[in-house]
Every structure is written in structure tokens, then in C-alpha cells.
């Protein structure tokens, strides 16, 4: 159940600002207790995705980098030229993974955003504005396979773009390119393919999608939010199947790749990369007649912290190609070992041909009974639907010795459990992010309760 007051018993609740200052020591002791309790949930490798790096030494190093620039607002670039170094080099290093040498006749560009969703909605905004300016499109639409992330629907919602969902191929879990082609019309601004998609970790048929985009004269976004910082290294290491999904394909016009996932940076950064700087320019915003002065921002955000740029840059420079290759090797090997464990049970079926991240279902059992049992053993998978399935994005914590073996042993016990409980309603279900309701209703509930308390107090104070 969602809990609006998760630490109330141990630390009380701040309903208003405390009257007097609280000491650094007291606050840090409280934060340490919370962080230690919460880190314990993933440190043993039981949690899918989320903590991509999982290495406290790396986190401590990035905390130092963050600390030097956390207070800096990179919108005020004249007093923080370092931000230009960090941002420019993050973009250049990210671009270098996606074969920019294949780009001819245009200059690539990029920006650093606050996360995968901002990269995706920014791409949609840029495509919309370019299509309006160059093709006179007033009622834009965007075509995606059903498996593409809801951030595309969010972008459509925010910017008045109709988002059209095409079915996916149930066998491969990849986009059905013919179905996407049928949805494209004169008002289509762009399409998307994922590398890989969130649900199954599989890669859409990118070469076919690229051909489709070129043929119809529209943009193509590659959602590499999840896979952008691991698949290129997987390809270098020879793992399969990782077909080209980047600027080697002529139709690919933008790529999102999250530094806060397999880039191993702190939460709060992603990259959005452009084949052609002219599309990137669509994201600049100008208000030149404001009494606060001529205003310009390079993207959706206004003020941004230099700390996140510094930490992300530090992560990339520290790990280098070798560091990413080694971490990728461990993730792929662990994922393939876990997939073997799934395949050893005829009751279970892996969806498509995944690599670092995989999903499995069952045609014989309720997969959520399997999940119920695994949850009891501490595992936290992500639940999928249509079909019901469990998703595991293998990350640093799973690569520790013994984790894949523990997964195999627990899974072997989960099968008889699921058989025994057939016909009963399972306790778990297909909810993104693990907790029913998610964060917003909890915070809303908290505020509602606090406000009710405040109003009671005010009403009980006699008028002077
Ligand atoms: C494929 C894919 N795209 C986009 C996103 C959205 O990223 P974020 O949660 O950083 O906004 C995710 C998140 O998991 C993802 O897996």
C-alpha cells in the first residue's frame, strides 16, 4: 500500500518549516538512516533496472564532482564557462558512440536534458516546429510502435501532437513496420524505433524503419534512452543480436541516450543527439522584449544545476571506453545466464531475442504467481501486460557473484508455487515502477492531510 508518512514514526513529520535550525549532524544522521535502509533493497542485486551502476565508490566520486558545481546555474553561462566544457564534451562523447562519421552533408549537434522523458518530448517539439516551418503542418502526428515508451504520448499530450500506436509483432516483439507505414500520412512529422524498448529490451527493425522514414521524407527518432550507453559496447564485444540502430542508418535523425541509466551518471541527465544542427536549433527559445532583459534558453528547462553536468562528465571521463566495455561485458554475460535459467523451464517463455534486458511470460501459469513467489524472496521485477510478463533490466548489482545463481534457484521454486496457486488471484500485477499508485498520489495525500491540519489550527486560533 502507498504510504504517505513512510518515516513518521522514526523521524516525525515536518508539516511547516521547523521553528529553529536543525543541526547538520542531526539531518545527516536521518538521511543516512533512510539511505541505508533503501539501498539495502537493491544492493544485493534483487532489483531490476533503476540502480544502473550500483557502485558506491562511483557514487561517492560523482558526489564530490557534483558538490563543486551543484550550486551553479548553467543558464548564467558567463560565470560558469566550465558548464560549456561539461555539456559540450558530454554531447561529443555520446555522439561518438553512434557513428557520427557516417553523417554527410550536415553537422551533428546535441543537448543534455534532465532525463529520457525530457529528451523524448524535446525531440517531438523540435520535429513539430520544424514540420510547421518547413512543411506547413498544423495538425501534426507521430507514429510509434505500441512498445515505445509513454514519454512519446506525454510529448504528444504536451505539444498537441497526435500519437498513433501501431501494433508490434508478437513473435519478435519488434515494431510491425507495415502497420507503421499504414499510419503515416501527409501530417506525420516523424516515427520512432527503440534500441531497446523498455518492456522487452529488444531492438526494433531499425534498418526497415530508417528506409520507411527516408521513403516518406519524415524524421526518425531512435529511443536509446535505455540501450544507448550499453548496446554500442555490446556490439563492440560481439554480442548478438545488436543490428545497427544509429547514424549509420540514413533515416535516423535524432537519438536519445540516457547518461543516468547505463551512462552510470546520477539521476537527472540524458542526451538528445541530432543528425543536423538545424533541428536542434528548433529547441532554442527566445523572448527578446521582456522587461527582465532579452531571454534565451537552449531547451525546455530554465535554470539547471552545474552539479549534474559535472557529475555526468566525470562519470564518462572516469570510466572511459574500457570501463564501459568491462561493465557492459558483465551485464550481458549475467543477462544471458539469467535468460538460460528462464529457458530451462518449459513453462516459461522469453519474449523476442533480448540481450541486456529481457522479459518472460508463461502460457501455462499465471506469471504473477511466479512474481509473487520471487517478490517474497526479495526480487523486484517490473510487471508488463499484453501479454502479462516480468521484465528484468540487468544492471551492475546483478553482476555480483552468485546473483544469477540465486535467480535460477529461486525461479526453480517459483514454478511449483505458481502451479499450486493456479486459479487464485495473484498479489502482484503490471504496474510500472513497482508501487501501486506511484509517487504522486502519495505526495498529494500528504499535502491534503497537512493542509487539513493547518486549517484546523488556524480555525482554532481565536481572532484578535
Ligand atoms: C526505452 C525507454 N525510453 C524512455 C524512458 C524514459 O526515461 P526517463 O524515466 O529517464 O524519463 C525509459 C525509462 O525507463 C526507457 O526505458
Each distinct ligand: pyridoxal-5'-phosphate
Q: Would you tell me the overall average pLDDT?
A: 95
- The CATH class assignment of the largest domain is Alpha Beta
- Rounded Rg: 24 Å
Specify the CATH homologous superfamily of the largest domain.
Type I PLP-dependent aspartate aminotransferase-like (Major domain)
User: Which percent range describes the beta-strand content?
Assistant: 5-15%
Count of runs of 4 or more consecutive helical residues: 14
Q: In CATH terms, what is the architecture of the largest domain?
A: 3-Layer(aba) Sandwich
- The portion of residues assigned to helices is 40-55%
Question: How would you briefly describe this protein structure?
Answer:
The chain has 464 residues and is of the alpha/beta class. It is 43% helix and 13% strand.
Give descriptors for this structure:
464 residues; 7-stranded mixed sheet; Aspartate Aminotransferase, domain 2; Aspartate Aminotransferase, domain 1; binds pyridoxal-5'-phosphate; 4-stranded antiparallel sheet; alpha/beta
Structure explained in plain terms:
The chain has 2 domains: 68-315, Type I PLP-dependent aspartate aminotransferase-like (Major domain) (Aspartate Aminotransferase, domain 2, 3-Layer(aba) Sandwich), CATH 3.40.640; 320-420, Alpha-Beta Complex (Aspartate Aminotransferase, domain 1), CATH 3.90.1150. The protein is globular, with a radius of gyration of 24 Å. The strands form 3 sheets. Strands 1-7-6-5-4-2-3 form a 7-stranded mixed sheet, sandwiched between helices. Strands 10-11-13-12 form a 4-stranded antiparallel sheet. It has a two-stranded antiparallel sheet with strand order 8-9. β12 (382-384) and β13 (389-393) form a beta hairpin. It has 464 residues and is α/β, with parallel strands linked by helices. The chain contains 14 helices and 13 strands.
Amino acid at each position: 500500500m502507498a504510504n504517505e508518512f513512510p518515516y513518521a514514526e522514526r523521524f516525525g513529520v515536518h508539516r511547516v518549516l521547523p521553528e529553529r535550525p536543525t543541526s547538520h549532524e542531526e539531518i545527516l544522521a536521518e538521511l543516512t538512516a533512510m539511505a541505508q535502509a533503501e539501498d539495502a533493497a537493491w544492493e544485493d542485486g534483487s532489483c531490476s533496472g533503476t540502480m544502473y551502476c550500483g557502485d558506491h565508490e562511483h557514487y561517492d566520486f560523482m558526489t564530490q564532482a557534483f558538490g563543486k558545481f551543484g550550486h551553479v546555474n548553467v543558464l548564467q553561462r558567463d560565470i560558469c564557462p566550465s558548464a560549456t566544457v561539461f555539456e559540450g564534451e558530454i554531447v561529443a562523447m555520446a555522439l561518438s558512440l553512434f557513428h557520427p562519421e557516417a553523417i554527410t552533408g550536415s553537422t551533428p549537434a546535441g543537448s543534455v536534458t534532465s532525463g529520457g522523458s525530457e529528451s523524448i518530448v524535446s525531440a517531438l517539439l523540435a520535429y513539430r516546429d520544424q514540420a510547421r516551418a518547413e512543411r506547413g503542418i498544423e495538425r501534426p502526428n507521430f507514429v510509434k510502435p505500441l512498445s515505445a515508451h509513454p514519454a512519446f504520448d506525454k510529448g504528444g499530450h504536451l505539444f498537441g501532437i497526435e500519437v498513433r500506436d501501431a501494433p508490434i509483432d508478437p513473435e519478435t516483439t519488434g515494431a510491425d513496420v507495415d502497420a507503421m507505414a499504414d499510419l503515416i500520412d501527409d501530417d506525420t512529422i516523424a516515427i520512432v524505433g527503440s534500441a531497446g524498448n523498455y518492456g522487452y529490451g529488444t531492438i526494433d527493425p531499425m534498418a526497415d524503419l530508417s528506409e520507411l522514414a527516408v521513403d516518406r521524407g519524415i524524421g526518425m527518432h531512435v529511443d536509446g534512452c535505455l540501450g544507448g550507453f550499453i548496446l554500442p559496447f555490446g556490439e563492440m564485444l560481439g554480442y548478438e543480436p545488436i543490428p545497427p540502430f544509429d547514424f549509420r542508418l540514413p533515416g535516423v535523425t535524432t537519438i536519445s541516450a540516457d547518461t543516468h541509466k547505463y551512462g552510470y551518471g546520477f539521476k537527472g541527465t540524458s542526451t538528445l543527439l541530432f543528425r543536423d544542427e538545424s533541428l536542434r536549433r528548433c529547441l532554442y527559445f527566445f523572448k527578446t522584449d521582456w522587461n527582465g532583459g532579452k531571454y534565451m534558453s537552449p531547451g525546455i528547462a530554465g535554470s539547471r544545476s552545474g552539479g549534474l553536468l559535472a557529475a555526468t562528465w566525470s562519470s564518462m571521463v572516469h570510466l572511459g571506453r574500457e570501463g564501459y566495455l568491462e561493465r557492459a561485458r558483465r551485464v550481458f554475460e549475467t543477462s544471458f545466464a539469467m535468460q538460460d535459467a528462464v529457458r530451462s523451464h518449459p513453462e516459461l517463455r522469453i519474449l523476442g531475442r533480448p540481450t541486456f534486458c529481457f522479459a518472460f511470460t508463461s502460457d501455462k501459469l499465471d506469471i504473477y504467481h511466479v512474481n509473487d513467489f520471487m517478490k517474497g524472496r526479495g526480487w523486484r521485477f517490473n510487471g508488463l501486460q499484453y501479454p502479462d510478463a516480468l521484465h528484468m533490466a540487468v544492471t551492475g548489482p546483478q553482476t555480483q557473484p552468485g546473483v544469477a545463481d540465486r535467480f535460477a534457484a529461486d525461479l526453480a521454486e517459483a514454478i511449483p508455487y505458481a502451479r499450486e496457486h493456479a486459479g487464485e488471484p495473484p498479489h502482484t500485477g503490471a504496474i510500472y515502477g513497482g508501487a501501486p499508485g506511484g509517487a504522486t498520489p502519495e505526495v498529494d495525500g500528504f499535502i491534503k492531510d497537512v493542509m487539513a491540519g493547518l486549517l484546523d489550527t488556524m480555525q482554532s486560533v481565536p481572532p484578535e
